[in-house]
């Protein structure tokens, strides 16, 4: 796979439109051999290098450090565009953006500056070993340092990351502590046990954390071993859930566009339908019209919810619990709709491509496998429940790892 373009080294995008154009260029390169790479399931070192070379990893970084200085609505659109060609790489990029932002969510001003300068200047790639369904990683206080020990069954980004976000609970307390460490630090062991039907290139296998030592000064948000909470600390969940929404929509869009090309170039009309071309079949036109309308609608909702969240990200010290809760409800609503539409589209495209489109060489199944795998991250019924509780009882969800 060709991973560079000569003009990328000459100039960097400066506007949202230019960043989306850059994302489209990356997406086009990823699409060339997406089927083969999905089948092989190799660690995506070249694909992450492409994200770095294109500058997409610096999208949210400060311009003073060579970053794009862009906002979350643009980041979501970039994730959607990349996921159109390769859902795994779209997920990796979206998780990178979330973990890059982790310093702003919980860190001190000094920590934020240090992390963003380091990561942006060097185009470092983030992964995260934070899975709340597993037992908490334990943290031992050793004076000037804290020591992490435990295991996480999922660690998206693992072996392709430069930095890994850790999270655990300080022994004898209820204090949760985030820290960012080099991915090659002694004590981190990434396992080659990601063997799922979809999102095969996300390097989401388990990790064992053994005596990973971190200075107290690197404990995110802690000053003199104490943490001062604020509402903005809890924005990690709606932020990452919108990342999910956008790579689901990107995958669905990729499925529909791939199917469209197949229908136009390869599909045969039904021999009893009375039409010479598949593109003239009434039922084919109906299904494409239906799927397109549904995707347009949920894409518009996703963009609107992203814009609603922008004010929160721009004024992190002013957001109230109610504002945060209402935003989470809106995210839950679009997450539910994106899940349903993405599953419908990625499974339904076979109705308009025909039996021969199921050939392994076409790879059309990868879109459904990718969506089906990740949409099981947390039950969509509980997202609809959040919306229902808000509508009927005017209650917003309490912040949790999933709400």
TrEMBL record:
Transmembrane segments annotated in the record for this chain: none
- PANTHER family, alphabetically? ACYL-COA DEHYDROGENASE, ISOVALERYL-COA DEHYDROGENASE, MITOCHONDRIAL-RELATED
Which GO molecular function annotation, any one, does this entry have?
A: 3-methylbutanoyl-CoA dehydrogenase activity
* Keyword annotations of the record: Flavoprotein, Oxidoreductase
Q: Which organism is it from?
A: Actinokineospora auranticolor
Residue stretches making up the Acyl-CoA dehydrogenase/oxidase N-terminal domain: 32-113
Gene Ontology BP terms? L-leucine catabolic process
Alphabetized Pfam families for the sequence: Acyl-CoA_dh_2 (PF08028), Acyl-CoA_dh_N (PF02771)
Look up the domain of life of the source.
Bacteria
Q: Where is the Acyl-CoA dehydrogenase C-terminal domain?
A: 243-377
The protein, known as = Alkylation response protein AidB-like acyl-CoA dehydrogenase
């Amino acid at each position: 796979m060709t991973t560079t373009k000569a003009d990328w080294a000459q100039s960097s995008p400066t506007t949202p439109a230019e960043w989306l154009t850059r994302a489209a260029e990356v997406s086009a390169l990823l699409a060339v051999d997406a089927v083969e790479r999905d089948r092989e399931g190799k660690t995506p070192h070249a694909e992450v290098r492409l994200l770095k070379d294109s500058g997409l990893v610096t999208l949210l970084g400060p311009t003073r450090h060579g970053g794009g200085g862009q906002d979350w609505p643009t980041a979501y659109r970039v994730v959607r565009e990349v996921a159109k060609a390769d859902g795994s790489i779209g997920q990796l990029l979206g998780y990178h953006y979330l973990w890059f932002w982790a310093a702003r969510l919980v860190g001190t001003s000094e920590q934020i500056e240090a992390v963003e300068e380091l990561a942006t200047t060097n185009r470092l790639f983030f992964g995260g070993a934070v899975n709340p369904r597993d037992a908490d990683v334990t943290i031992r206080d050793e004076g000037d340092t804290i020591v992490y020990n435990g295991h996480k069954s999922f660690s998206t980004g693992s072996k392709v990351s430069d930095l890994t976000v850790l999270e655990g609970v300080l022994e004898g307390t209820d204090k949760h502590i985030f820290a960012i460490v080099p991915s090659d630090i002694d004590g981190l062991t990434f396992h080659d046990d990601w063997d799922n039907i979809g999102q095969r290139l996300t390097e989401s296998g388990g990790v064992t954390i053994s005596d990973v030592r971190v200075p107290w000064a690197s404990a995110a948000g802690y000053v003199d071993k104490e943490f001062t909470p604020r509402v903005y600390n809890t924005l990690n969940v709606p932020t990452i859930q919108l990342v999910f929404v956008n790579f689901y929509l990107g995958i669905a869009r990729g499925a529909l566009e791939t199917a469209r090309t197949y229908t136009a170039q390869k599909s045969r009309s039904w021999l009893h339908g009375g039409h010479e071309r598949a593109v003239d079949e009434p039922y084919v036109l109906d299904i494409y019209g239906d799927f397109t309308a549904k995707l347009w609608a949920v894409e518009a909702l996703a963009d609107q919810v992203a814009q609603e969240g922008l004010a929160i990200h721009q004024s992190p010290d002013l957001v109230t619990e109610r504002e945060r809760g209402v935003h989470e409800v809106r995210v839950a609503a679009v997450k539910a709709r994106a899940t349903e539409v993405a599953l419908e589209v990625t499974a339904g495209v076979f109705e308009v491509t025909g039996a021969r489109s199921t050939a392994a060489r076409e790879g059309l199944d990868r879109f459904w496998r990718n969506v089906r795998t990740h949409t099981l991250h947390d039950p969509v019924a509980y997202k609809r429940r959040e919306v229902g509780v808000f509508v009927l009882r005017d209650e917003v969800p309490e912040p949790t790892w999933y709400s």
